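Can't paste images in this forum, so I'm doing it all in text. The chain is below; anyone willing to post the predicted structure tokens underneath?
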Amino acid sequence: MTHRLTIEWPDPRPFDGRDGTPIRLLAVSDALEPALADSRNRSSLGTIDLIVGCGDLDCDDLSFIADGFDAPLIYVRGNHDSDERWRECGSYCPDPIHSSAVLHRAGLAVAGLTWPGRRGKAAQRNERVAWSQALQVAARRVGNHDPLIVASHAPPLAAGDVATDNYHRGFKGYRWLLERLEPTLWLHGHTPLAAARDWQVQVGRTKVINVTGAVLIDLLPPPGSAGR
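Text version of the structure:
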């Protein structure tokens, strides 16, 4: 089942010229949502402005979703995304977001945090790398207070993770980044068991969304800005 979420975006500028229509994101990770395999289900979701992949979804599946919705795709790699597999996909799947980069797509700023550590069959967590990523993103955002989306594979510590499972526990550096920057949205995967219980949590000003499978997000312009 594709979860649905509507959020009021605090900045009216991305909606200029849209006549009040929402900006529509489809966030995916970890496993292809079965409903998206059917063209009728994809049609029922309507137009998508941006697809955001949060890791561990095979490049064939990412390309299938992007082609099916005829929408631009950005994504980060997860712990299972080996370099060897992704080199095979280079001819038809775009490059991932470079770790700690901040992109601008559909009028939105999106920071990408790939899995912080070794990926592939021998995947390992690395708290030091997570801290390095967090510090780099924070440095890039110094003096910039525009709304931000963070797309990561793993969640911040104690925000959408599974506290009893060390491998799926969130990262301390990510939690620091969340509290420092207060992004409007934080999208992540990696924790399918948590997704079955609490797929969205609020941490201060930030909505943290576990997008395991798929989540459709409608961003609405702030009140009084429609029709600009």
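The chain has a mean pLDDT of 90. The helical segments are 39-45, 59-69, 83-88, 127-140, 172-181, 192-195.
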